[in-house]
Structures are given as structure tokens and as C-alpha cells.
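[SOLVED] Need 3D model of a two-part complex

Original post:
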Amino acid sequence: DAMVIQNPRYQVTQFGKPVTLSCSQTLNHNVMYWYQQKSSQAPKLLFHYYDKDFNNEADTPDNFQSRRPNTSFCFLDIRSPGLGDAAMYLCATSRQINQPQHFGDGTRLSIL
Amino acid sequence: QQQVKQSPQSLIVQKGGISIINCAYENTAFDYFPWYQQFPGKGPALLIAIRPDVSEKKEGRFTISFNKSAKQFSLHIMDSQPGDSATYFCAASKSAGNMLTFGGGTRLMVKP
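Solution:
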């Protein structure tokens, strides 16, 4: 059974049109992460939540924002997607920081 | 600055052979070293991990070798199978609460 669930698996949006990706977890983990992964590259951390505390990576563009309304759900909002934002977006969770991370299967975002 | 260097970028191994992927790190504060396996269209899955208090960890056909003085660690896949064909990422993190730093990935193909 999937423990980190990402919806949708594939998302198509238009250039500049806001889009939201969602992630839910059944593990009751404290930490939730969002990564961006481009083709043939390693995942790149965008930000993470430790419980309700939001932590942004220094080089994450302002175009990317996140919400975590409760322990189980976390959202990635892209305010004005550009062509360069086309990628696989991965959600991960861990019980605590520096404990094993469990990844979802990602949402592949395409920009028209 | 790439803090975790992974090699080779791609690897072709015959069925039954040994696959070896190497990683080198720079930051001596790293103290947790996981390996992730990623199949196309899927999120990375934690395969095996090691902390620097041991020099080797084995789980089934997968072994991590760790050389603290050389700041290197490697993944060995014994009796490689076509089902092992995937992209493998090494990673490192610090116990002080910092995030995973991924290597660049190795695309492994095991030929029948």
C-alpha cells in the first residue's frame, strides 16, 4: 500500500497558469519535503516542513510555495509556471530530520 | 559546489555480474549515507544506508562499503539481475538536522 501518495501523477498546465500539486501520507511522519527532479538529474530539495515549521532552501525560486494544513497533507503551489519548471515533483516524508526519507512516485508536470 | 560526487554516470553489467557504484564526499560532518534506487516513472526508494561507525553493511545482494579516511563509499550489487536495472543515487547528510545531498546518479543496465 502506498504510504506517500501524490496526485495527480501527470499534470499539464499552461505557461503562467497557477498549478497545485498535492501529497498525502499515512505514515504520520513529522517532516514532509518537496523535491524537483529534472530528467537524468538528482532530486533537488525545494523546501520542507518540520511539523508546521516551513523551511525554504536558499535557491528555491519565489514562484514556488507550499502549504501544510495538517500532518497528512502538503501542497506545492507554483504561482506562474515557466517552461523551465517542467519536471517531476517528488514528495517525501521522514519521521524526523536525518531519518530515512520515503518518497512518493511523483507528479510529472508539463508546461504548454 | 557538488558535495557528493558519484561515478560512473552509466553502467552496463551482464546478468550475474557485480555492479559497483562509487561515491565520494567532501564534508566530514556527513554521518548518514543512504542509497536510493529509482525506476522510471517512480520515486526513489531507500535501498540501504550506512553510518560511519561501520565499514560495511550487507542486505541480501546489496552491500555498502564505507571508507571514512578516504571519504568514499560504494554500493556493490552481487549477482546483478535485469530487474536491478534502474538509476541509483547515493546521498549524504549530517545528523545536525541538515538535508540529504544527492550524488548525480548512476543509470545501471543489467543485460540478460
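Edit: The first strand of chain B starts at residue 4 and ends at 7.
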